Amino acid sequence: MERGADGGVRMRWQDRVLTPLAVLSAAVLGCYLLGLGTVRQQMLLCWTLAPILDLSMSWLSRQVWRSPDGDPASRRFWRAMGAAGLIFAVGDLTQLGYVLATPDLDRFVFHPAQSLLGVAGVLLVGGVTVCHPGRAWSRGARIRMALDAAIVHTAAGVLGWSLLTRPGLDQAGATGYFSALFGCGVVLCGGLLAVKIGLSGSSPIVMPAAVPIIASTSVQALGNALLPTDSVAGVTLPALLVLGPCLLMVATPRIQLLQTRAGRGGRVRRGAGAGRRYSSLPYLGTVVCAGTLVVVLAVEGLGLSAWGALTGLLINVALVVARQMLALAENNTLLGRLDESLAEIRRRERRQEALLRHASDITAIVGTDGVLRYLNPAVERIVGGPPGEYLNRRLLDLISPADAPCVVAATAPVFATPGAKAAFEMRVRHADGGWRWLAAVAVNLVDEPGIGGVVINARDMTEERELRELLRYQAGHDELTGLANRRQFTDRVGASGTAEVAVLLVDLNGFKQINDTYGHATGDTVLRHVARQLSACSGPGDLVARLGGDEFAVLVPAGVAEADRIADRLRAALAAPAAIDGRQLTVGASIGVAAGPADRPDSLLHRADLRMYADKQRCRELSS
Predict the structure, then answer these.
(1) Number of other residues whose CB lies within 10 A of the CB of residue 623
(2) Spatial distance between the Cα atoms of 135 and 273, rounded to a whole number of angstroms
């Protein structure tokens, strides 16, 4: 077995049963077409093969019902098929005995027991088929099903009537009537199977296995229409009309078993009409009725068979008209519901369009190639420029080159996996040449109908980003001087690890007198002046900080020698008078320098503090 793209199962004919069966069928066909052997030998071959094939069908049906994959109702059907095979075998063995007991028999004559047992087997299968449980249907579906089944069975009735009233049947005697009865049973059984498989949506047999059954019923109906009369001469055609259905029926359970085994790994389709509102089978029944009437009129003219076929055709047409009226009523109801659904869809589309048009956030659809396919009008309010200006452009061409690697890393899994989602931030160039920060969420909706891409929702977070940066700056800097504050200074010392660093602690001399004499505004100006001088004396890798009040500090990664040079430059810079608020003021400073490993910041700062106070004491002694 091979599995198809739609989940169904295709038959592979290299099978240990089907292959020999095909070879046997070709050999039998060749034997009869070439006229090998005498007439009696050909008759004996036919009635010897027939019971063997019946027993083979029974044995293969037993394998199907013993399979654990079937439901109880389906196993019941295949048990009936196995029993029917045994019944057919008994009838064909009876016919073989009749042929052996009649040495001078030179044409096909059916024994009444063979026909009677054939009818019994067909009725057994038909009864089980009728009792097979169906699906749960709505009221309208039940009416449709009943009308379609009546149309099919009307066609079967017309065929059965034509069999029972065909010309020459009265000369065929009891054998002819039994054969005609058997043919009617076959036709009715075929109609039941057609309804179950093609219309009901609940069948005990899969469609590939049903094809041989339907074909065999057609061949048997043809055989029972021709064989009991004098319309067929010779042995070739009668033998093929007998053996053909037997060969087809042997293939049926084997195909069913192969389909069932293959269905363990996937879905096996149970019926062609399952779940369908429309089937051509009822209209085929009308064609059969009309065709039968035409054939009867051409063969025997306007007689009993023709009147019966005409009556059946009229009933069939009336059922078809009723079915069409029901279909029209259902279609009107469906069209009304469809109009309501379309109106609701249009309302939803208008609502969605209004929401997107007035949304404060940008909604974009990006193809898997990274090209923008859709943008809502919010892009004009946030980024500037109409949406059409950005369509069919690559997303990466619109964002900052500095953010592109991060955006690519964040969105690569999203573009690769349907349903994936990721959040990221990016800068997009504004129409005025500036940059706007956007917070975006991307979702892969490639498999969604009508979208087929990655949906990105982005909101403007420029002000939020600026505020966040401001708060981050304020958390680590002194508001008055713009230098790093104590928190940032201690964090930077701790981040230096075990490296050798130097620390300068600076404390202003006489700052309290300046505040008391000239006021705090002048004092603040002095602090800003000292901060500028300290920054100018320090190197680019040094961290200058205001620890609080008039106390400053410098972290010097280069070591104590560089720290001493900074201290000397600062003393020289502060020794010169500075113009502050229109006054020439001189500010002195006491400086303490200490060096050591950065992993002991408390000890380092303590030593620098002691040296700074020692320097302050020395300055006081010099001034006194």
Answers:
(1) 9
(2) 12
In angstroms, rounded to a whole number, what is the distance separating the alpha carbons of residues 562 and 134? 97
What is the per-residue pLDDT for 623? Answer: 66
Sign of CA dihedral 569, 571, 577, 583: positive
Report DSSP letters for 557-608, one per residue. TT-HHHHHHHHHHHHHHHHS-EEETTEEE--EEEEEEEEEETT-HHHHHHHH
CA distances in angstroms from 460 to 124, 374, 422, 521, listed in the order given: 78, 18, 17, 40
Cα–Cα distance for residue pair 140/148, rounded to 1 Å: 12
State in Å, rounded, how far the first CA of the chain is from the last one: 112
Structure tokens at 236: 């070739």
Q: What is the mean pLDDT of residues 323-345?
A: 85
Count of H-run helices and E-run strands, the chain: 18, 13
Task: Give the count of alpha carbons within 13 A of 447, CB side only.
Answer: 6
Angle at 375 between CA 371 and CA 381, to 5 degrees: 130
Q: What is the pLDDT of residues 314-327, one digit of tens each?
A: 888 888 888 888 88
d(CA 32, CA 83): 30
Q: How far, in Å, CA of 532 to CA of 518, rounded?
A: 21
Q: How far apart are CA 32 and CA 26, in angstroms?
A: 10
SS (H, E, C) 476-519: HECCCCCCECHHHHHHHHHHCCCCEEEEEEEEEECHHHHHHHHC
Between CA 423 and CA 594 the distance in angstroms is: 47
User: Which of 173-182, 184-193, 430-439 is predicted most confidently?
Assistant: 430-439
Cα 368 off chain centre by? 18
| Residue-level pLDDT at 552 | 92
Q: Where are any strands of DSSP class E within 47-193?
A: none
511 vs 398: CA distance, rounded Å: 54
Q: Going by C-beta distance under 8 Å and a sequence separation of 6 or more, which residues neighbour residue 28?
A: 45, 49, 240, 243, 247
| Residues paired with residue 39 on neighbouring β-strands, in sequence order | none
Task: Output DSSP code: residue 396.
Answer: G
Listed range (40-49, 318-327, 526-535) with the worst mean pLDDT: 318-327
Find out whether 595 and 603 touch, Cβ atoms under 8 Å: no
3-class state of residue 293 by DSSP: helix
- pTM score > 0.70 for this model? no
Distance separating alpha carbons of residues 441 and 464, to the nearest angstrom: 17
Give, as one character, the DSSP assignment of residue 387.
G
Largest CA distance in the chain: 160
What angle is formed at CA 75 by the lines to CA 73 and CA 81, rounded to 5 degrees?
110
Residues 6+ apart with CB under 8 A from 247: 21, 24, 25, 28, 53
* Mean pLDDT to the nearest integer, 264-278: 44
Give per-residue burial for 213-243: e unless 16+ CB within 10 Å, then b.
bbbbbbbbbbbbbbbbbeebeebbbbbbbbb
pLDDT tens-place string over residues 592-623: 999 888 877 788 888 888 998 988 888 777 76
Rounded Cα–Cα distance for residues 281 and 184 (Å): 19
Is 559 within 8 Å of 595 (Cβ atoms)? yes
Q: How far apart are CA 490 and CA 487, in angstroms?
A: 5
pLDDT of 554 = 92
For residue 123, the surrounding DSSP H or E stretch is helix 112-131
